[in-house]
Amino acid sequence: MTMVPSLAAAQTSDFGLRGGLGLSGESERDLAEGSGDQDQSQVLYGDEDADIVLEESFLLSPRRRPLSFSGKVSSVQRVIAERRGIVNPRPNEVFDGETQRDQARGLRLGSYLFLPQLSQWVGWTDNAQNASGGEPDAFITTDVAFTLLSDWDRHQFSTAFRGSYEAFSKDPDSNVPEGSLRSDLRLDLGNQWNVNLGADYGLSQENRASPENPVLDGKPNSIQEFGADISVNKELRNLNVGARAGVDRVEYGGSSSSTSRDNTVFDGSLRLAFDSGAMLSPFVEGGGLVRRYQHQSSTPSSFDRDTEGYFIRGGFTLDRGDKVQAQASVGWREETPKDARLNDLSGLLVDASLVWSPTRRNTVTGTIATNFYGTNIDDSAGSILYSGELSLAHQFHEDFVGDATLGYSIRDYEGVSISEEEFSGSIGLEYAFSDYAAVVGRYTFSSFDSSEPNSDYTSSTIEAGLRLRR
User: Fold this and answer.
1) Of the ranges 46-50, 66-70, 328-332, the best mean pLDDT one
2) Which end of the chain is more exposed for a tag (fewer CB within 10 A), N or C?
3) Is residue 406 a contact partner of residue 428, using CB atoms and an 8 Å limit?
4) Nearest to 289 by CA among 274, 273, 267
5) What's residue 267's pLDDT?
């Protein structure tokens, strides 16, 4: 019931954002033996890392429960390390918004560590449909997540899963099944070479207020995403060179018109990062892409929406240890459709991430991102979304923590006069009352404004639950 996007957003986000569940070999052994200065299981916990695919995408699917605060911290740290060319960063010891008593320690399965979690929520919302004229309803949500992490001397394999089902008492058409699965394999080839292989799957539902979704009532369109990627990295003294190739396919289910948006994006990119050990480190990235739609009409009036494009950006990372970590970049991305009647889908790339720990009991995270999306709207080649989120976590007591989040996005469709704005805010509390359980609660408000008629809505949601983890 919150403002985090569908998994399809990952297809059209900036390249190179997908991160593996990376720890150094030393960190993995510390975790397996229960030693080390920090409990790394919090950073790699299934609830967080199952959503790493979404690490720079948000504010598009009002259904998805938000990434936990510790998930946001690890996501931002991962992106910052990636920009610096560090493949397997060791997380800094900042307060990550987690309660201490029920820390996830995991179960040993041979040479793997298994970290499971089960959450049961009950709640009420004044707009179950997340649409204009939506009605209030109560709901129950079951959320299951796990992470499987290898403990090998060399190489690393990890799998993270999260699945949930939200069931409403009055309107079964508003029920929401969602899931995400991500697997990564890192191969350490020696001589400062490594290869990373990844694959993922996601299931979500489309917002009823979307101009591409003709279903104003009944079941919304489903969204499925299939992705795979490979990257190669080489360290050359103070320079890190990386190459990446990926493929992402999105399929829409529901109304017959939605399948015309089914498309696949093939992309490749190169990254150069200079890291001399100083606080400030520059980087530059560039790449190309091809977008192909599966269902193209052969009538003369139809549009050929296939595109070819490129992107380039440059920026810097700032690393002051446990106090401040940040990265920021600016660039340009452009997709040119084969059909000359469609304008180029082009725009400024703005990208920033921040983890700031002003005190040992407070941590702030921030993210700004740009995402590109395909469409089936006449005369439009797609849309561009600029979005941002700011979160604060505070530790009242080691077993009692709270967090607050504000988010904003603006989305414009190229070639047509359609625009959307979205604002969200949430407040959450967690209290661990045993070594394996905590009670959790959250209030969320969202406001959606669109230039399309009968699309504006607001919603308020309050929910409470029990979280079990091992």
Assistant:
1) 328-332
2) C
3) no
4) 267
5) 97
